[in-house]
Amino acid sequence: MTDFLLNRQPVTLATTDPDLTVLDFLREQAHLTGTKEGCASGDCGACTIVVGEPTEQGMRYRSLNSCITFVHSLHGKQLLTVEHLEQEGALHPVQQALVDHHGSQCGFCTPGFVMSLFALYHSDVQPSRDAVLTALSGNLCRCTGYRPIIDAGMALLEARHGDAFSAQMTDIEAELRSLGTPVLPEETKPDQSVGFWQPKNREELARAKARSPRARYTAGSTDLALEKTQRLANLNALIDLSQVAELNHLSVDAEGLHIGAAVSYTELEPVLLADYPEAREWLERLGSRPIRNRGTLGGNLGNASPIGDTPPLLIALNATVTLSNGQSERTLPVSELITGYRQTVLADDEWIDTIHIPRRTPGSLFRAYKISKRFEDDISTVCAVFYLETDKNDIVTCLRTGFGGLAATPLQLTDWQEPLIGEHWPALAVNDLSRTLAEALAPIDDVRASARYRVQVTANLFKRFHLETTQPDARTRVHGHGGSAHA
Amino acid sequence: MRKLTESRLPLALSQGHRGAPVAHESAVRQVSGQARYVDDLPEPANLLHAAVALSDVAAGTLARLDINTMARAPGVIATLTLADVPGHTDIGAVFPGDPVLADGDILFHGQPLCAVAAETVEQARHAALLADWTITPGDAILTVDQARAAETYVGDTVQFRRGDALTGLANATHTSSGEIHIGGQEHFYLEGQVSLVIPEEDGGMLVYTSSQHPSEVQKLVAEVLGIPFSQVTVDVRRMGGGFGGKETQAAQWACIAALLARKTGRAVKLRLPRSQDMTTTGKRHPFVNRWTLGYDNAGQIQAADIEVNGLCGYSPDLSNAIVDRAMFHADNGYFLNDAHITGYRCRTHTASNTAFRGFGGPQGMMTIEAAMDGIARTLGEDPLTIRKRNLYGDEGRNVTPYHMTVTDNILPELIDRLETSADYWARRDAIREFNANSPIIKKGLALTPVKFGISFTAKHLNQAGALIHLYTDGSIYLNHGGTEMGQGLFTKVAQIVATEFSVPLATIQSSATRTDKVPNTSPTAASSGTDLNGAAAQNAARTIKQRLIEFATDHYQVRPDQIEFDNGQVLIGEQRLTFADLVQTAYMNRISLSATGYYRTPKLHWDAETGKGRPFLYFAYGASCSEVTIDTLTGEYAVDRVDILHDVGNSLNPAIDIGQIEGGFIQGMGWLTTEELKWNDEGRLLSNSPATYKIPSIGDTPPIFNVELFDQPNREETVFKSKAVGEPPLMLPISVWCALRDAIASTADYRINPSLNTPATPEEVLFALERLADQVREAS
């Protein structure tokens, strides 16, 4: 059984329909039609809902795309929908702000904006235009041009005070903590083929996989759920990694960052940026706020997609990944994990457990570039990551690269980068090198860009990296931040 | 940032009358999730869900269609092929050519072949995957060039001629020619296509749909079923966005659902999944346009020969009117002197392209704006200088290529004001300075005008009806033929009626558009919603008000001029009654409290044979100034600042008008920048989801976005001298495209006019930079 709160109402669902999405549950079973389906692929945000969960710091509210979230993953959480925000006949401040600023026209996207703004309202972010843009990066509106919505968000952040929800938090937390334990496969039955299981630790995870060997792993389901909503597949057996304690562990030590495979990008953000602040733009361009609230490094690596944004970064940073089956572990470079188009070295009983990013060498230079048609919430045309160490005379002692969108797998151009060791970095023949870089690439044409553009841009991004690392004052970015401000 | 016009009627504004910036009538219900769209309606008992199977080949013949496996799939109750259609099988809106399901000829990749109804959405969609077919492939024509070479068109080629352009060009001081490829645009209404059809006891159908044209859905549903129009009722409370995409192309889904409802006797809902919606419905027409202009040393145009080629898709749909409108706007706000404008309607094996905000106008306008930049670069002048020199003017410079005299031209004044408020010339200098010192990042600036003709070019559509009831508590029920798609039509019309009766806006109850309330309506399109329906409602209100005045004159023994409707009350001589009291007294004295209203647009005439006349009652004007930053290494860009001054006549609701301007701007910006439709060589649409088709997201909103209304009454007689606002702002972001081009041109010292097709994606911008660098190299 899956137990959660639907607004204030306790709900118990049998796990006989493992791939039921939150959106379908709301609209077809709970008959709450305020939450809309715009695309069923997590790209438009009309279906945005908020999930509340108890943490050590109290209730935490996060916006999610309900169309690609499995309802059984809500065990022990509170699902908040647009219908519930009105309290005692009065609109919630986020709703009122949208009305006051003329933030709805056709209104179909509006419930999604309301919920994203609600999550923002309950976050501890400092008021700024950027904070509003980030919070709403996963919500498309085709009518307003967004200006009134941004104004509503700004006004809200500047006049934030408690709401009815703040007053209820303690009660809600207690209710949530009292809900039953999540479901695991029955111990005695082999090869269980229908179920949604939520192991809480590695041991339970290993047992669950043993009982249901054909079950698929899911964490954020931002990619897996598309098999159901877009390709109409039935995902009958799912093991949810998001509650496995060890896979949610995030720590920093002298060696580096150790990131559990089920840690969401949102959780990862402050830790990664503390060590690698230059990754901010790359991270802001990775999906949208609700996608980053769900998506994980483990998922991105496990998918092994050629356009995944994280493998190029992890490869360039010399990250390693620990795979586990509960009994034994092995750790290998991320560059060796992915073997082909959507193929990895993972054995049938293995899962991605932890990703390790080494501490950076003081003085190292690093950039992560993502290029796409649209700045926010778009898939990479090209992702290019460069990591450079030089000695005190600016002689290259280490150069590593990671590229996405350029081949069937993420790339590291070892043959191209290695000869640069020992060269004087500021004096490099950049034009020649960008040409040889281009010659080393053989991408394809697709819906996002032509092969020629991909090659040209990649070569030019190397020029940009060289420029930003040798002339920090040169302006190289359109978005005002510039290379150095982002560093 | 938002600037509302100063109120001249403070008391009336507080009542929500015309001119008040009141919130959208559904705003509170929208933010609280209570506003119902078709898929949100409580479902009738025994509802079935439908799904369609789409062709996977662009051209050929359907040799075999096997639906047996589909019919046996779990939950399936009924199937539908063309053979099951009792009435008409062609649902072409104006001209034939749109079979409701494939009739043997395969017309495009994504054409609906058959349909199925099942107990659940999931069952229906799974079953649709089981349809099996054999298509004998034919040769697919996919591009304008292929269609022109094969001379395959959906309508006759049309030419407007004023003077002798060819002689004019021969005698011109300078000539320049060019070509531009203009991409299409997916509507991406957030609510996809959907219909819910409930069979009635008399064989009729009640249709809930998301359509801009309920009367056409009524007609087509009746025709496919072979029943009288009177047995079909179509109800549209609201749409989750339309933008033209639900003008003709909502009907097919209602027809299929109705056919399945007839076959099963059960209610049927058909809602397209997003990828099918994007694949099977038509879009904004891609165009390939060419021009030759002759001009003098000052850059003033002496003659123009312009050719527009619309990629129409497999059927006429509305393409003839759309290509016409591209031709009508190939002058934008400029006097072309001797002009020939020719429009080709290319038939291709792609989805049938359809109405989209601007309706061809934007593609026509892009052509002349692209050419303006060319004149400026050749003469070494600023593009704004050239644009201003070519604006329509007084006698001798005020006749369009279609022989309509422009009598309401306010562009010179409007541009002057914007030029000053946007500080154009100082920023021009600052940008040149910036570019001189910034090797990688470049800035661009442009100020472009819009002149957009208002009226349906099909004259008969310029009519509307309304229905008003007064109830004895003084509440007012309002119905009219226009549909609400977010544009605020219901709000504006309610404001008009509240103003007429001088009652608080809350007194007015807006209601779903229904074909049994107001019949034979025109689509809510061509920006005409308020002009037509607002005027019809105003007439209905005036009819009832006149009855009330006549009654009160008689009953209270006063003169008509002693009666005044005043904010929910009525002054009658010395007496003061509430509006409700007067209504009640009128009822007791047997006065009819219900009336229809009707409106037809005056002054229109058009001779299609000669290409002469007055197709528009008036023009709506605007201008925008955009500043962009581009990255010459990646082609990525940002729009940094936008200033807009736009003409809506007397604004009926400044908040809603500004919302239309801002929203239209961003939508048009998407069309010209990131929204890229891509097909493969087999004619399959690749950009078939929001993962691959990128409309502007919130971060694309310019950080500085100043929008102001040009506060002058319409010179023509429209409702309270307001102007239409739906479409014209869509063309304001042509300044973004020109600014991108300006930034690109800066890399060659503004001496060469770079070619830049649309959408100007980062890839297109980078390649435009490359092409320009090649040109410079070749020249030196």
Treating each run of at least 4 consecutive H or I residues as one helix, how many helices of chain B?
20
Largest beta-sheet details of chain B: 8 strands, mixed
Fraction of residues in helix of chain A:
25-40%
CATH class of the largest domain in chain B: Alpha Beta
Q: How would you write the strand order of the largest sheet of chain A?
A: 2-1-5-3-4
- In total, the number of strands of chain B is 29
Strand content of chain B: 15-25%
What is the gist of this entry?
By secondary structure, chain A is an alpha+beta fold. Chain A has helices spanning 22-29, 93-100, 110-121, 129-135, 147-158, 164-177, 202-211, 224-229, 265-275, 280-284, 289-294, 297-303, 310-316, 334-337, 414-417, 430-439, 451-470, 482-485, and strands spanning 2-6, 9-13, 48-55, 58-65, 78-80, 195-197, 216-218, 237-240, 250-252, 256-260, 320-324, 329-333, 338-340, 343-344, 351-358, 365-371, 382-390, 396-404.
List the helices and strands and how they pair.
The complex is a heterodimer of chains A (487) and B (780).
Chain A lengths: L1 E5 L2 E5 L8 H8 L18 E8 L2 E8 L12 E3 L12 H8 L9 H12 L7 H7 L11 H12 L5 H14 L17 E3 L4 H10 L4 E3 L5 H6 L7 E4 L9 E3 L3 E5 L4 H11 L4 H5 L4 H6 L2 H7 L6 H7 L3 E5 L4 E5 H4 E3 L2 E2 L6 E8 L6 E7 L10 E9 L5 E9 L9 H4 L12 H10 L11 H20 L11 H4 L2
Parallel strand pairs in A: 1-5, 6-8, 7-8
Antiparallel strand pairs in A: 1-2, 3-4, 3-5, 9-10, 10-15, 11-12, 11-15, 13-14, 16-17, 17-18
Helix pairs in contact in A: 2-5, 3-5, 16-17
Chain B lengths: L9 H5 L12 H5 L16 E7 L5 E7 L1 H4 L4 E5 L24 E2 L5 E7 L2 H8 L3 E6 L6 H7 L7 E5 L2 H7 L2 E9 L11 E6 L5 E5 L4 H12 L6 E5 L14 H14 L3 E4 L2 H7 L6 E9 L5 E13 L5 H10 L9 E10 L13 H19 L3 H8 L20 H11 L2 H14 L3 E14 L8 E8 L5 E5 L8 H13 L6 E3 L2 E2 L14 H27 L7 E4 L2 E4 L2 E4 H10 L5 E7 L4 E3 L4 E3 L3 E14 L5 E10 L7 H19 L31 E6 L24 H12 L16 H18 L1
Parallel strand pairs in B: 1-12, 10-11, 14-15, 18-19, 28-29
Antiparallel strand pairs in B: 1-5, 2-4, 2-6, 3-5, 7-15, 8-13, 9-10, 9-12, 11-20, 13-14, 16-27, 17-18, 17-24, 21-22, 22-23, 25-26, 27-28
Helix pairs in contact in B: 7-8, 10-11, 11-12, 15-16, 19-20
